[in-house]
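Late entry, zinc ion complex.
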Amino acid sequence: MIIGVDYYPEHWDKSLWKADADLMRESGVKIVRLAEFAWCRLEPQEGNFDFGWLDEIIGILSERDIKIVLCTPTNCPPMWFYEKYPDAVQTEKDGRKTNTGIRGHRCINNADFLRYAERIIDTMTKRYADNKAIIAWQIDNELEANFCFCETCIGKYRSWLKARYTTVEAVNKAYGNNMWSGEYSSWEQIKPPFGSYPDAWLNPSYMLDYNRYASDSVVEHINWQQELIRKNCPDTAITTNVWFCRNMPNFYDEFKKLDFISYDNYPTTRLPDNSEECYSHAFHLDLMRGVKRKGFWVMEQLSGGLGCWAPMGRTPSPGMIKGYSLQAFAHGADTVVHFRWRTAVSGAEMHWHGLIDHSNVPGRRFKEFSELCKEAAALEAVRNTEIRSDIAILYSPDDEYAFKIQPQTNGMYYMEQHFLLHSAFAKYGLNIDVISRLEDISRYKIVIAPQMYLTDEAVTKRLYEFTENGGTVVLTNRSGVKDENNKCIMEQLPTVYRKLVGAYVEEYDPIGYDTSSIRLTDGSIYKCRQWCDILCPETAETIAVYDEEFYKGKAAITRNSCGRGTAYYIGTVCEKKLYCKLAKDILLESGIPFVEGLPDNVEFTTRTGDGIIARFIFNNTSKNQHFTLDKEEISLAPFEMKIDIIGG
Ligand code: GLA
Ligand code: ZN
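Prediction complete; structure with ligand written out below:
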């Protein structure tokens, strides 16, 4: 397995380069990512390229057997470019131009930007086409969905709508525009969501489509860059790096034409004081693996205390630097690149800590990083293994957009029940795939489908077939609520899933920050919050009833037999131990072997290959853990990962 670093030679005096590269080699760094923000040094004046320094550092690194990921530097065009083309900067929601002197602020649809971007990408990819040290290209950096409100982007948005709907009448129908006299009679009346009103005041159907367009717009740009790179470097792998930002693109579309996923992974360094808080890193890593259903890279990995746009946070405590990288391997990553080699001494990010502090004296974190490099190198046998799973959790970018547009009730967000169910099944030492809702699910035994909010005929059909053929499906509140255009369906909830679930929702109570409780048939009581679907079972049996409110005694969780399979419906949001109990019942029913005895937040996954199984057991807590697993006594220090390779 491979460890790398993100390095910015252009930020440092040349006299440091060789010493840096020596230390990289000595510590076991195998990959360095370069140049994503270096346009002003690569083209200091218009058309005047300077690749001398980049050649030199690539030479220094490759002499030391270090491979390179080169980036297209399109994230921040130089100041001379903006001086000449002030319109190429993005336009904000209020119609004002964004500042220059930051990054990610160019309009990706601006013709001048595209012309200059094309020239530098073409020049760079030609120059390095035959350089064997370059093993991958990264497109730009953390591209977000395109929320630029300039005239060009407005034109793009209208063309996107025309291609989707052909006529304005069809748009009116899809959005239900006769509310508040919103019907369009010409394309020109259709504008992006300008202004200061919160998104929730605008028509949610229109807002959902705007999010879809914004994602498609950036995907178009990624594909355009991808073609330019491939023209000169047909054999080099191409990626782009993503994270869970506010304006998230649709990851599945984004990576369709790219060779591998890379993800920027910054687990929190603030230890949760609340044992209920569920760690989400494992879920996010599983989601990234699921985007292409294969191994992935972490292109930026936690290396020090974070801080820049927010006040500085806790420094990673002992074990975190190593533990969180190994955790990425445990969930299917093959390469982890740390952000960044050394902390910047200037610029907005000077307090976002790298492996080495401002002093340039390698310290505690660097020592741990060097140990990580050695441990990763010893895992070579694990490289061609894969993560196999009988359980899938369905995720949908559209549902996530829709939830952001209309938060359902206080405290509720789209991913929370995904996290809860993921951590409940993970408690039994099982691998879990997080996959697109649109994927084929027939290979799984259990499909967890939280908050299937927007409906899609093909997805619904697959869930019915999956269950009828013997699978177990777990559905939750806020399922079947909307059509694909984010309009409510005029049927009793969960509408299209009613037969599958064998129950309907008589009424719901969005309790938000209030708490309530449910009672299981064995008399045990669990807290619940946020949402209460008051269920009327038809063919389903009741697993839990509400224990409070005017609906005391009414069903909260049901179980229905459907064909050869089973469908669960969880009408509320419960404390974690309820999900753990339910997960165990479901696992027993479906015959999937599992382990018991993992303490909370100790994670156990496996990677399997030809004649080899690697077990990863990770103590994702700040406390020592001692436990027995299959009669084996295990002790783990805080954030320690135990890896056992069987066979190979
Ligand atoms: C992101 C970016 C990096 C850097 C880090 C830390 O992941 O890709 O360039 O800004 O955040 O802030
Ligand atoms: Zn624009």
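The CA atoms of residues 259 and 441 lie 23 Å apart. Will revisit in the morning.
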